[in-house]
Amino acid sequence: MRKLFACVVLLSGALPVSPAAAKVLIDIDLSAQTMHVVSSTGTYDWPISSARDGYVTPDGTFSPQSLQSIHYSKKYYHSPMPHSIFFAGGYAIHGTYETRWLGRPASHGCVRISPQNAALLFDMVKEEGGIIHITGRPPVTHYAARRRHHPYYASAPRGYGAQPVGYGYSGYGYSGWGPQWGYEPYGGDDQ
Fold this sequence. Notes:
CATH architecture of the largest domain: Beta Barrel
Shape: globular
Number of domains: 2
Radius of gyration: 25 Å
Order of helices and strands: HEEEEEEEEHEHHEE
Largest sheet: 5 strands, mixed
């Protein structure tokens, strides 16, 4: 009889649902470059940056796979990714310090939001869990064409690539200290 009563109570919903069963709903619209978040603490709308031309942000429905309060990209120049919520392999929702690009595609595939919003979202997902819906196609951009090159890239001699500032070449040309380009310490072809 107790088992029957317990089943009836559970099926009727008389017992309160635990907060752990609640989920943060994260809807990302790549076309509008926005994120809509619904959680027990409220509803939020934030600008995002998704994949720029030549890169892809996956679309579909995902669950958070891993949460890291700070992560450094192993693929892209050890870039900081604060409050990362990984959802598909190496793809994550994370904070960015490049906030001027929010509202337009600028990433290598991750979904970027402001550091403050990333911290808030991270805490909500950590507390309640989450479901991530990504839809739409990002607008076409010419992000790479708009970037300006740092002066020291142009000052490195041909064939040497970008040399660190102050190591033979500075941002303003040859510095006169550090290795002499073309110098062979073991007696190259010219000796």
